[in-house]
Amino acid sequence: MDVKAAPNGVATIEDRILRITGYYGYYPGYSSQRSASRSSVTRCKPGANCPITRSGISRQLSPLSVAEDSAAPILELQSRSPSGICRHSRVERQIRSGEEGTQSHTENNSQENQAQTRCQSCTSTFLKVVWGFLIILSVSSSWVGTTQIVKITYKNFDYPFFMTWFSTNWNIMFFPVYYSGHLATAQEKQSPIKKFRECSRIFGEDGLTLKLFLKRTAPFSILWTLTNYLYLLALKKLTATDVSALFCCNKAFVFLLSWIVLKDRFMGVRIVAAIMAITGIVMMAYADGFHGDSIIGVAYAVGSASTSALYKVLFKMFLGSANFGEAAHFVSTLGFFNLIFISFTPIILYFTKVEYWSPFSAVPWGYLCGVAGLWLAFNILVNVGVVLTYPILISIGTVLSVPGNAAVDLLKHEVIFSVVRLGATIIICTGFLLMLLPEEWDEITLRFINSLKEKKSEDHAEDITDSSVHTRSRSRANGTVSIPLA
User: Fold this and answer.
1) Beta strand segments in 250-360, E
2) Is 140 within 8 Å of 404 (Cβ atoms)?
């Protein structure tokens, strides 16, 4: 039935509603045009074959058809799926779901990377600690073994300089041992000559020359020989425990020399440690009443610690820091210099009857090789430990040789520890441990204390919260309600 046009030009009720609601696709005669277009378009069911020719679609064209196409609602312009859901809304949902999936995938990847990084850092830290524990045991055992075998060797062969010279010659094997490890572990293997030249950069960019060999190697070789020789002389006068404890004073001497010569940072705690080391030296000398052998033995041990400290400070001044390969090259060079230029010294001592032995068959070569091998192992472990673990653990392994030697001396019943000697040993070892504190130890300590305080306050707040929740749950279970007071 046709509806007559109203005076205001609105033909149908639908046109009135669209005009009142302000629909943006409205124009006069919109409903009639829409009904005509719907009746003239043939719809196909999903899956059916629809005619594609122009004759299959009878659509009435009017001057307003262009306006209809441009102003028709969006829902009419979008083709509908068989299920009745618009493709536009489906595309928007797919885009949103894709973005959400990408974001969740990125977050999952970042969380996995963080977890993997934490796992790797924890694994590396655990391996360093394990290696450090093994290095500590190896360093302390090798040093205790060296000291005790020297004491045993003195019973049959009392010639400390020949023992020092013989043991230093074994340093030549340091670089071959390092190169063997390089062949066993490195993926890109280098020839011995190329590796030797690479490690010789510790002497300068030009490598090892004859001038540098004499200039840089000679003073360090003399200091090395003096350190070991004085240490062996001290073992003739004192027990292994006393000598190893006094040798730990070299850490205090290194600090004092570094402060004076290298202008290192002044630290009050290390000054206290140095004073403790000096106090322990005096108490050790007083332990036996300042008689001849005791005071001479203490002087030998302190001299050995002093030359060792001077060696380390000069090395840091002239050569700086060195990696494992450069350290192996340098120590092997010291052994080579000792074999060439210092070999005349034991010969002179032999013919002057200062260190004379006869026959050669009486020389305990087994003990001498044991001392030299353990000394070489100690030097290798100290340099390997710096690579595999934390350097502070190497120093802890050195100071642990003191209780190790004390245990062996007690088992052998060769020493009776007096109160003064025991106190001196404890004071020296405590000073040595104070020397191991880092430069920022006070800031680190304050941070640790503050973190503990914050953790305690958080735990206390959590306990109060848990107790309040528990009280409320009990009151509800009993049928009562707790009303907080204003």
Assistant:
1) none
2) yes
Query: Under a CB-based contact definition with an 8 Å cutoff, are residues 308 and 195 in contact?
Result: no
b/e burial code for range 61-90 (CB count within 10 A of at least 16 → b):
eeeeeeebeeeeeeeeeeeeeeeeeeeeee
Task: Identify the bridge partners of residue 345 per DSSP, sorted by sequence position.
Answer: none
d(CA 325, CA 195): 9
For the residues of 311-374, what is the DSSP string, one character each?
HHHHHHHHT----HHHHHHHHHHHHHHHHHHSTHHHHHHHHTTSS--S-GGGS-HHHHHHHHHH
Closest CA to 397 of 135, 136, 132: 136
Render each residue's pLDDT in the chain as its tens digit; 486 residues: 444 444 444 456 666 665 565 544 545 554 455 544 444 434 444 444 444 433 333 333 333 333 333 333 433 334 344 444 444 444 455 555 555 555 555 656 666 666 667 777 777 777 777 887 888 899 999 999 999 999 999 988 889 999 999 999 999 999 999 999 888 888 888 888 888 888 888 887 777 788 888 888 999 999 999 999 999 999 998 889 889 989 988 888 988 888 888 887 777 788 888 888 888 888 887 776 666 678 898 999 999 999 999 999 998 888 877 888 888 999 999 999 999 999 999 999 999 989 888 777 788 999 999 999 999 999 898 888 777 777 787 888 888 888 899 889 888 766 677 788 888 888 988 888 888 887 777 677 778 788 887 777 776 666 676 666 555 555 544 444 433 433
Name the phi and psi angles at 104, rounded to 5: -65, -35
Report which DSSP code applies to 43: P
Length of the chain in terms of residues written: 486
Reduce the secondary structure of 269-287 to three states and give it as a string: HHHHHHHHHHHHHHHHHHC
pTM of the model: 0.68
Preceding amide of 403 cis, omega within 30: no
Structural tokens at position 235: 């073992």
Q: The tokens of 318 are what? A: 């002239």
Q: DSSP secondary-structure letter at 80?
A: B
Residue type present at position 47: G
Q: How is residue 143 written in tokens?
A: 């040093």
Neighbours of 98 (CB within 10 A): 10
Alpha helices in 155-209 (DSSP H): 160-169, 174-185, 192-199
Residue 40 in contact with residue 60, Cβ under 8 Å? Answer: yes
Place of tokens 């880092």: 438
d(CA 470, CA 475): 9
Q: Name the 3-class secondary structure at 2.
A: coil
The DSSP 8-state label assigned to residue 360 in this structure reads G
Largest CA distance in the chain: 145
